[in-house]
Amino acid sequence: MRVTAAVLLVLCFLAVSHAWDCREIVNIKNLMQIDAGLGQVVATDTSQIPYYLVGDKWIRLPGSLKHITVGPAGIWGVNKADSIYKYVAGNWVQAAGLLKQLDAGGEQFIVGANMDDTPFCLTRSATVGYKGPGSPLPWTGLPGAVKYYSCGPFGCWAVNKNDDIFLMSLNQDCQNNGWSHIDGKLSMIEVATDGSVFGVNSAGSVFTRDGITASKPEGTGWSNIPMCMRMGHVTYDLGRLWVVSKSGVTMVCTP
């Protein structure tokens, strides 16, 4: 069975090599979620163990998290009870509030969604200044309902329970102009530090948004990135596309 799986994986790499050069990350197994930003990579596995990539080694972080994020706002995570934590000086410091998913990719501000799919934003000053329970955390509720939410330099992207896609212009003080509907369907979406947008649909196919610029943050359309196995999660940073399959295989791809 293991030999068969290895052969299938080789065939997979050959199948996508015409578009992206992919290789399996062999020293980490059963990842559930991964996030990359500013040259850093973090992840959680199916046992909710958080990791931080140093060179080619995955260093286990303390605690237990179902979702972890890294970006200009630092390293943050949430556990199975939706409790929120910020990584400060080698330890997780709990923050007020409850979120099921959050993202640190904005201009040093945090966004996330709670169990009711209500989106929230934490201002830059509160995000950067948070050191512990004594620091204020004025979470700002945002309009709409989203299940997954991610920000970059040109805007914030989100998907709702129906896999509809939305874009919002959001500044560091959480001021916004509401959501604009974007064509397509995705079950999760991630915005890179450079503004690139990638996502996965319910069938496990990977897509990237073309034509995104500061003057046209919505881009021009979606392009499929061929993968020969069903993917569950994707993230991108510094020319590297990290993908986690629904079966727990992690790959890193370069164009």
TrEMBL record:
- Signal peptide span: 1-19
Gene Ontology terms for molecular function: carbohydrate binding
- Keyword Signal included in the entry's annotation: yes
Q: Which domain of life is it from?
A: Eukaryota
| Stored Pfam families | Tectonin (PF19193)
Keywords carried by this UniProt record: Lectin, Signal
Q: Answer whether the UniProt record assigns the keyword ATP-binding to this protein.
A: no
Sequence similarity: Belongs to the tectonin family.
Name of the protein described by the UniProt record: Fish-egg lectin-like
This protein's species is Salvelinus namaycush
List the gene name. LOC120032089
